[in-house]
Amino acid sequence: MVTFFVFYFFSKIMTERLLIKALSGGKNTKIITLNGKKMTKMPSALGKLPGLKTLVLQNNLIPKVCPELCNLTQLTTLNLGNNLLEEVPEEMKYLTSLKNLHLSGNRICRFAPGACDGLQNLILLNLNNNHLTQLPQEVSRLKSLTYMSINYNQLASIPRELCFLENLVELQVNYNQLICIPKEIKFLKKLQKLLLARNNIGVLPEELCDLKKLRILDIAGNIIQIFPSGEITSRFVMNQLAENNPFLMDGIERYPQVRRMISQGKTCAICGQYFITVWLECVRFVPPPKDWKISKNLQLVPLQVLICSYKCFTQRDPNLFGIAQV
């Protein structure tokens, strides 16, 4: 017990000395790092450092941020990982220059109202190892967000609003309680890495095929049982091969059965994407080539075309007709 108090007292003295040194720099102080100092509150003196760029206070015992945090409008990196925060605080909205926010390892179960309002420049958000059961609709305001990690929480769903973050490149939602993926996932056009391991997902939406830039999809440890004829996977693989993805081109040589399946792929007449299972066989009437030896009275000839989905069928031109068995 005596050893603990000696350590605590020594740590407190060192923290105060570091703060005094930082404050003496005034506006010239750009970086403050106070890791593992057993701090139970955020120093209000930080508000006297308006030029601060990086603030690292991880591995402490801080339950909430100080109001003076609002003064740090030039802050670009804030690390409050492994503390005792219970919410993403409202003060965050004043950090208009913030680009990297680390809040992992806290007790966060909610976002304070308005917390996302001023985070228009935020690029990275780390909320791993918290107690979140849902994300607020306000996450859609994080327009610059590129990397988002929410591993080890209790999320049951991904809000559709998150799917409108057009700059998102990487989304990690491993070890949650997700049961499905919203169809709006297709709007994440820049997404390259989607990690959904160890959830309760039973079905993958066909809209995943619309993510042309997706390179890594991790769905290990789910309860997925529906892969219609392997269609979602095969479409993804074929479209990546068409773009000469080096990893898949190398891997496909090692699996002849997959190579045989993909060799049966076809191209949709509407969207131009590759697929395995034909959703509908159609016919399009086109003018015959001039070198054909046919009656001059025949102005149009039928041409077989294949369509990959109902969505594409509804976008067909007037000269394309579906073929039904009667």
From TrEMBL:
One of its GO terms (cellular component) is cytoplasm. It holds the Pfam family LRR_14. The gene is LRRC69. Keywords: Leucine-rich repeat, Repeat. Core component of the SHOC2-MRAS-PP1c (SMP) holophosphatase complex that regulates activation of the MAPK pathway. Acts as a scaffolding protein in the SMP complex. The SMP complex specifically dephosphorylates the inhibitory phosphorylation at 'Ser-259' of RAF1 kinase, 'Ser-365' of BRAF kinase and 'Ser-214' of ARAF kinase, stimulating their kinase activities. The SMP complex enhances the dephosphorylation activity and substrate specificity of PP1c. It comes from the Eukaryota. Component of the SHOC2-MRAS-PP1c (SMP) complex consisting of SHOC2, GTP-bound M-Ras/MRAS and the catalytic subunit of protein phosphatase 1 (either PPP1CA, PPP1CB or PPP1CC). SHOC2 and PP1c preferably bind M-Ras/MRAS, but they also bind K-Ras/KRAS, N-Ras/NRAS and H-Ras/HRAS; these interactions are GTP-dependent and both SHOC2 and PP1c are required to form a stable complex. Interacts with PP1c in the absence of Ras GTPases. Interacts with M-Ras/MRAS and RAF1. Interacts with ERBIN; disrupts the interaction with RAF1 and Ras, preventing the activation of the Ras signaling pathway. Residues 120-220 form the Disease resistance R13L4/SHOC-2-like LRR domain. This is Leucine-rich repeat protein SHOC-2. The keyword Repeat applies. SMART domains: LRR_BAC, LRR_TYP. The keyword Ribonucleoprotein does not apply. It comes from Pongo abelii (Sumatran orangutan).
